[in-house]
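[scheduler] slot 2 assigned
[scheduler] job type: sequence-to-structure, two independent chains
[scheduler] chain ordering preserved from manifest
[runner] begin chain α
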Amino acid sequence: MTLLAAGVTKRSKRSYMNSDTTIAILGGTGPQGQGLALRFAIAGVSVALGSRDGDRAAAIAEELNKKLNGRSEAHIHGCDNLGAVDAAEQFVLVAVPYAGHDATLAAIKSRLSGKVLVDLVVPLAAANPRAVAMPKEGSATEAAQALLGSEMKVVGALHNVSAHTLNALDEKINCDILACGDDLEATDAAVDLIKRLGVEAYNCGPAVNARCIEAITPILIRLNMSKKVPFSHAGIRIWRPGHSGV
């Protein structure tokens, strides 16, 4: 089955990235959002850190810029969610807790025209992060697409990398990134953006595949919590045949 036959829409080609782009990260005041903001800034991508509380976002952005300590000329600035979306040239990343997922998207829907929404949210089960509780649409990515409408470009990605790993700036990110979405061009563009973090990233097909990708997260959480596994903050890698993985 081709991507087009599987429901992936191929749009006319356009440039999604430039050297001085600004992205938005909503839920940016949480550990995952902060780690991503730092990583993207180091990669030369400026970040509009979004939160329901714009003052808190501004304060955390100031702290993050201090952590950069001259590593990059890119800047992190904090604002409320709508301000962050407006500041984003093309990409809006959503890293809010699942409980706030739909409400956040509904609040920013009118400001997303012409942009790509990258959904990082995993619908973990209440009181049990070692299991998922998928919405009726099948995944958070598909729920986002349904809520925003078929014309909105939605990509699911960055579900399986731990916040601890993202914030360990002196270490390389220890996993590959899987992305999926029904707009082929937008998904490829999101993959290119993510690769700027110094990781391998893969277009894994249409949004329905988010059901598998998002479900990997609780498996990793379970392993990372297990006393039988001698390490934590594990990720996944895609290895070619015959490659040792070293």
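[runner] end chain α
[runner] begin chain β
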Amino acid sequence: MSHEADPDGAEGSVTTRRDGAILRITLDRPSRRNSLTHLMIGDLVDVLTRAASDDSLRAIHLCGAGDDFCGGADWLATNDGQRPRTGDLVRRIPHGAHRVVELVGSVQLPVVCSVRGWAVGFGCNLALAADFTVAASDAVFWEPFVDRGFSPDSGSTWLLPRLVGLARARRMLLLGEKVSGTDAADWGLIHQAVGRTEVDDTAETLLQRLAEGPTVAIGLAKQALGFGQHTTLSQSLNQELFNVELSCRTSDFKEGLAAFRERRAPRFRGR
């Protein structure tokens, strides 16, 4: 999807490209560090919603055009540069930015995110919600909410403590500390940090590996990991049991067993 211009007068688009079984999503507004307008956020919701029910897909790649990943939600474009009316954010954001983060975390496809330059606010949380984020060593992850005078949103207070613990979450959310790609990887905030010129190849290797995997089993494992973040061990064991029951009924399960018996690499079809 793309838009030459939106009602706010801000250019920007979310472009998609089908590459075999991989859906490639690009945030395309490089002149504003790919900061997102209302229409771009709406397009992301639509694209991810359709991907969630497309059983021919096996992986999703999320990246930004140009030198940066995403500068967050464009406050000027989304609020006309003014304080929003009372109740406006409560009505609007759950169906926009928050829905995007939920979809990235819940779609039963592996999501790989490539980050160069800035990943700010909503853009930072989008990268953290992905299953695997590969970033340039000099990329910058930044949660600037309190620096702008408002409290964190788009899942930051849920994602950060679970990824890096409360102490580091406080540094990022209460002090607005910027975190380099290298430190983000060392902290466990992201999957891997590499040289800027290596980001594409590293992400591509990961995408191909995931896209050739047992898609149903990967999706169920992702679902169980998310479920386990807010439940007991007993409940997680029970969820795993039902997921195993489902995955054992797939063609890929049969192929995995056959490959093991025949001592060869499995050829999964995502079914």
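[runner] end chain β
[qc] chain β: The beta strands are 2-3, 12-19, 22-28, 59-64, 111-115, 118-120, 132-136, 140-142, 179-180, 192-194.
[scheduler] slot 2 released
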